[in-house]
Amino acid sequence: NAGVTQTPEFQVLKTGQSMTLQCAQDMNHEYMSWYRQDPGMGLRLIHYSVGAGITDQGEVPNGYNVSRSTTEDFPLRLLSAAPSQTSVYFCASSSRYGLSDIQYFGAGTRLSVL
Amino acid sequence: AQSVAQPEDQVNVAEGNPLTVKCTYSVSGNPYLFWYVQYPNRGLQFLLKYITGDNLVKGSYGFEAEFNKSQTSFHLKKPSALVSDSALYFCAVRVSSNTGKLIFGQGTTLQVKP
């Protein structure tokens, strides 16, 4: 059982470049989220999805796009990378059913924008 | 506005001593509260949660947390700390029952010294 898989693990971009961070889960979870982690600021929610075809913005959505065409995948797109987007990005998933509410996290993508 | 605060950036404790990592929250309605742990270069892992019932919640690795409604706190505790407990700890609160959205505190680094 792979859980939540994120690729790539590390990435270096130049300002203005675009890229897609991949996230896949094999637990058939309805909820998926993207967070960024910055020192002293905890995790901040970028975008989230409650199911295929449904996405919404979190706290810090500017500069990022998402889509959810399948239950399994939830890619995060950086449209034009900026140094302020240097961060560690985590994808998470959880089930809407029962009282679980437990979010399962991927190992993260460490992104540097030069 | 709903929020979570972890007032200590770092907690230092000697191995074998009890530890406490503090968390306070502000939510409307009944709180769903969580603790997650992050080891270096890893994603977050679920430790324990409070939804309803007993104010003392037991979780993984010998950790427990005490819910105090009057003080709006959910402090993480362990009777006897281990060096391997050294990690970054996050408190979180669920802010929506329909989306699974969580708000995280800024994190507390726990350092257990031999």
Structure, explained:
The complex is a heterodimer of chains A (114) and B (114). By secondary structure, chain A is an all-beta fold. Chain A has strands at 4-7, 10-13, 19-25, 31-38, 42-51, 54-57, 64-66, 76-78, 87-94, 104-105, 109-113. In chain A, a hairpin with a 2-residue loop joins β5 (42-51) and β6. Chain B has 114 residues and is mainly beta. In chain B, strands 2, 5, 6, 10, 11 and 12 form a six-stranded mixed sheet that branches. A four-stranded antiparallel sheet of chain B has the order 3-9-8-7, with no helix packed on it. In chain B, strands 1-4 form a two-stranded antiparallel ribbon. In chain B, a hairpin with a 7-residue loop joins β10 (87-94) and β11.
Topology:
The complex is a heterodimer of chains A (114) and B (114).
Chain A lengths: L3 E4 L2 E4 L5 E7 L5 E8 L3 E10 L2 E4 L6 E3 L9 E3 L8 E8 L9 E2 L3 E5 L1
Parallel strand pairs in A: 2-11
Antiparallel strand pairs in A: 1-3, 3-8, 4-5, 4-9, 5-6, 7-8, 9-10, 9-11
Chain B lengths: L2 E3 L4 E5 L4 E3 L2 E3 L6 E6 L5 E7 L5 E3 L5 E5 L4 E6 L8 E8 L7 E3 L3 E6 L1
Parallel strand pairs in B: 2-12
Antiparallel strand pairs in B: 1-4, 3-9, 5-6, 5-10, 7-8, 8-9, 10-11, 10-12
Give the tags.
heterodimer; A: 114 residues; mainly beta; seven-stranded mixed β-sheet; 0% helix; globular; B: 114 residues; six-stranded mixed β-sheet; four-stranded antiparallel β-sheet
